[in-house]
Amino acid sequence: PEWSSPPFQQLSGVTQTCATKSVGWDNVAYFCYPFTVDLFYTQEDEGVFPYSLPQWPVLYFEVLSLDFWQRYRVEGYGSLVLPASPGVHMLTIPTWRPVDLGTVAEMRRFFIGGSPELEDLTYTRIPSTFK
């Protein structure tokens, strides 16, 4: 059994950019990017009842910033289990990023650019196979 999408539908993409604004003590960015996705679930063995679905589909996010010198930095990673009901949803996705501790690491990030990155976006949440 597996989830699939139509062959013409892209399963990854890039959204628009935005500027941050101050809310209290935090700089906050609001992304509002509408999209539509069609997913299909196919099951090989149709004779088994009750049917059990695998893990519900998950969206993974990588938030990047673009600095004055046109260099990208990772600002956060996040994930979201897709809502099980159809319709319009307003969702908040908490994000995090790996950090090198220390003043030298922060200066390197600011002046040279770059930052620690994940090899695989699925590391942003606990894997389904983790025990």
UniProtKB/TrEMBL annotation:
The keyword Cytoplasm applies. GO terms for cellular component: MKS complex. It is found in: Cytoplasm, Cytoskeleton, Cilium basal body. One of its GO terms (biological process) is cilium assembly. The keyword Thylakoid does not apply. Keywords: Cell projection, Cilium biogenesis/degradation, Cytoplasm, Cytoskeleton. This is MKS1 protein.
